[in-house]
Design a protein that fits this description.
The protein is of the alpha/beta class. It has 28 helices and twelve strands. α12 crosses α13 and α17 crosses α18. The radius of gyration is 32 Å and the shape is globular.
Amino acid sequence: MIFPCHLKELFAYVLPIFHTLGFRKTLLNCYNETIQGKDMEFFERQMVLLDSLLRADKPVIGSVLSKQCSLSLKTIKKEIDDMNDYLCHVGFRIVSKTGSGYEVEVLDSQKYETFKQQAINRFQRNQFFKDHQLERVHFIIRQLLSNRGNIYIEDLAQGCYVSASIINRDMRLVHQKLAEYNLQLKNKTKKGLVLQGDEWDKRLALIAEHRIYRRFILNNYDVDEYDFRKLFLTDSNGYNQAYHILREALNNEEGYLLPYYALPKIVYMIILSVTRQHFDDDLMKTAARFDFVKQGTSYFLAQRIYQHLSEELDVFYSPIAVSTLAAYLRSFRIIKYSRFEDFTNAQQIKDTVTEFLEFFNTFIDLSEYDLNQVFKDLCCAFASLLSRLVIGVHPDEYQIARVRNDGLLGADYCLILYLFLKQKGYDVQVLDTLEFYYLFMAFARLEAGPAKRKILVVSRNGYYYAKDLCAKFERSMEIEDFAFEPREYLELKSLNLNDYQMIATDIDELGAEYNLPAMPVYYWRTRQELNWFVDNLRKLDRDHQPLLLHPSDLILVEKTCSQSSFEQLLYQSLPLSEQQKQAFLTEVNLRSSLLSPVRKNQLLIQKGLRDVVGVDFVRVFIFVKPFKYGDGQVKTAVVYNIKDNQMQKLRMVSRMITKLLHHPELFTVDDPELYYELLYKMELE
C-alpha cells in the first residue's frame, strides 16, 4: 500500500514527539492514531505501468506500454484514468500527447520526486520478491508475526505483487520455517491466516526475522513492514538506550560473560517484552520454563536492567518480563569451569558427559588422548545447552554460517553428539550442537599421547646406523615436537606405518617395495641432502599433513547428469566389493550434513560417521552442468572414507574440502580443464 507523500512526512514529524512521551505508547498506538486520509493500492499491472513512465525520459507510445503490461490499449487508458485521480495528490499526473504517447506531467516537483523515488524502490523490491522465493517467505512470516488484523492469501499476493497461486506455493516453506519455532499456521474461514503458538516462540521468531529484515531491506522504507518495524523501536533511540542499560549492568556484574553476538538479541528481547506486553498472558509461565532461574545471578541482573529501563523510559515491567529475560540471559551466558560447581545439577551433567565420551569412543579411539580439559569444556558446554533447551532457544542459520568455516571434522563430531542426545531423549535439533563446534575442532588438533610426532628412520647401513642418526637428530635439533625411531629395513613388514608422521631413509626403492600410506618420505643420498632434511624438519609446520587426493581421484562428468545417474556412477567408481559398497552407502544415508542449511555453493559431501569398510578413498566428481539433487543443485561432489577414522587423515581431508567450500574461483570456472587444474592446484596449496 502506498500512502500520499504528506502522510509520510507527517510520520517523520509526529513519531519523535510520541517517543518523548514514552516509547511504549508510541509503538503500540501511534500508527492507528495518525494514519488517516486518502491512499491507494496499486496492483501489479499499475506498478509496471508507473515504473515504465517514471523512468522514461521521453513519451512512451501506447503499443509499447501494452506489451510491457500485457494489457490492451483500452485497458491501459482505463488504468491511467483510475490512477490520475490519486496521482494529482502526490504531485503529478499521466497525460497523453497526440502522436507521441504517454508521459508524466509534473504538478509539484517536490512531491513528485519523493513519490517517484519511493515508487521505484518499491517496484524494485517487489521485482526481487518475484524472483526470490526465500525473501518472499520471510516477508510473509514477518507479516504473520506482526499483523494484528485478519490477513489473507490475497493480501500477501498483493503485498508481493505476485499471484495468489505463487503465494500458495510459498506457504509450504513458510510452514517449515514457522515449525522451527514450534509455531503453526491455520487458515480459518472469515478470519484468514491465524498464527498459533506460544508467545515466547513468537518473540524468538521475531528476533530472528529482524536480523534478516535489517540485512536485506535496510535501505527501503515500506509501509507494509511498519507493524513489524515499530516492534523494535526502529525509528527511535529506544534501542540505543536499552543497549546502554544492558552494557552498564554487565560491566557492574563481575564474572558474568556474554558473547558479543548475543547482545543485540538480548536488547530486542527487552524491547519486545515492552512492545508486546499485552500478549504476556499467552506466555507459558510454567516453573520448568522460566522459574529455573528465579534465584540465580541472571535473575537479579534482569531485575536491575528493568529497574533502570523504567527510570529512563517510564515503562512498566511485570514479574514474567524479569523471568523471561533472566532465562534468555542464562541461555547465552558463557560458563567457566571454575563456576561450574555452582550448578545444582553439576553432577548430573558430569555423568552425562562421561556417557557421551564413552559413546564418542565408539567412533574415534580416545584411549591415547588426554581428555581432562576436553571433559571440563564439555561440562560447561552441556550446561549452556541444557539452559537453552529449557526455553527453546536455537541458533539461527546466520550465526552458523559465520562460525562454521574450519572444515568438516567438527561438524561430523557435532552430528555424533546429536545422535547421543537423541538417544538420551533430549528434545534437541541438530543445529543446537553448534556451541560444541569449536570445542570439537580444538579436540581434533590434539596429538595422541605425548606432544610428539614419530619419525621413522630406516637406512641402508642397518639398524645401529639408523639409531646413531636418531641420536644426532635429537641432539642437533633440540626440538621436543619430534620423536625419532630407528628400524631395520625388514621390520617394516610388521609395523603399522600409520603410527608415524613421516619416514626418513636413504633407500630409494622403499616406496616401490612397500605400499606406503599417504605420508611424506624424505630421501637422502649424500651428507648434504641429509643436512637439508634436518634444516627443513626444523621449519616444518606443526599442522603439515600428507597429501591424499591424486589426479586419478578427480572425475570429470561432461554429460548431463541426474540424481539417479550420479548414484549409479558413484556406485561404479567406489574401490570396494559389492558388500562393502552397500555397507558404505547405507552408512552415508544415515548421516545428515550439518552444512546443508547454509550451503549455497552446489557442493555435495558424502561420507559416513563410522568406517564400515576399512579402506581409504576420496572421489571428487566435477560436473560440467549442475544437476538437481534433493532440494538443491550439485556442481561438485566429494565422496570419501578414512580407514579406522584415523585422525590425521580426517583432518587433512576436512581441510581440503573446506577449501572447496570457500574457494572464490571454484564455482565460477566454466572450462572443464581449467576447473580440473584449479581443483588439483588448490589441494596442493
